[in-house]
């Protein structure tokens, strides 16, 4: 594979205050969080993008390490500062949905490349039953008091089968048999994210309120979620495992699971260690 990297400058249109492409970094999320924690936070506007094709110290949920060969993966952080926008500031509790907004954008991006992508609750994107993206959000309280979110996404793009980190992972190269232009993938991801974010902001962060498309964010997530309807194992911090059937996702973004006795359980992303559908990795 030739594996070209990202262009040093990409035009994302007027929707983003800053678009920064770096040759390499330890972690785009860590870099963005550091910026928002400093006196330069206001320079990032309402929406910005920080991306690289060479991230060397990436982390996922529960501080799991994530690395990939240079130019094989797209590592992007969206900097979301709702208080810097011209409209009404989003309620703090609505910021929990920003992770899902990025996941929805990733699914739409991959479907644009003819891949049947879906969301695995709470923060992964699959093609078939294998992971192609992971999403990680971090809340930042800026020095001025504003609450912002940095959402990082790592997408396996031009990665050969032998380079995949685990057997349950996949990449666009493995699935399509050809390289994709990283600039095109990033541009598509950013365009989809901005569109979904603006729609969400237009209804003041209410995931159950339809936007101008006539569809609410909750239903957008539901239509892309492959977890619902599957038998799942939910691993909890006390080392217990709950088994049941994933029934739905509610208006708080929590997964509803019915166990073998018919009891309903509700889980937020922070409640679990990990969640495995029966078909995961098959």
TrEMBL record:
<dbReference type="Pfam" id="PF03099">
    <property type="entry name" value="BPL_LplA_LipB"/>
</dbReference>
<feature type="domain" description="BPL/LPL catalytic">
    <location>
        <begin position="23"/>
        <end position="201"/>
    </location>
</feature>
<keyword id="KW-0067">ATP-binding</keyword>
<keyword id="KW-0547">Nucleotide-binding</keyword>
<dbReference type="InterPro" id="IPR003142">
    <property type="entry name" value="BPL_C"/>
</dbReference>
<protein>
    <recommendedName>
        <fullName>biotin--[biotin carboxyl-carrier protein] ligase</fullName>
        <ecNumber>6.3.4.15</ecNumber>
    </recommendedName>
</protein>
<dbReference type="InterPro" id="IPR004408">
    <property type="entry name" value="Biotin_CoA_COase_ligase"/>
</dbReference>
<dbReference type="GO" id="GO:0005737">
    <property type="term" value="C:cytoplasm"/>
</dbReference>
<dbReference type="InterPro" id="IPR045864">
    <property type="entry name" value="aa-tRNA-synth_II/BPL/LPL"/>
</dbReference>
<dbReference type="InterPro" id="IPR004143">
    <property type="entry name" value="BPL_LPL_catalytic"/>
</dbReference>
<dbReference type="InterPro" id="IPR008988">
    <property type="entry name" value="Transcriptional_repressor_C"/>
</dbReference>
<keyword id="KW-0092">Biotin</keyword>
<dbReference type="GO" id="GO:0004077">
    <property type="term" value="F:biotin--[biotin carboxyl-carrier protein] ligase activity"/>
</dbReference>
<dbReference type="GO" id="GO:0005524">
    <property type="term" value="F:ATP binding"/>
</dbReference>
<dbReference type="Pfam" id="PF02237">
    <property type="entry name" value="BPL_C"/>
</dbReference>
<keyword id="KW-0436">Ligase</keyword>
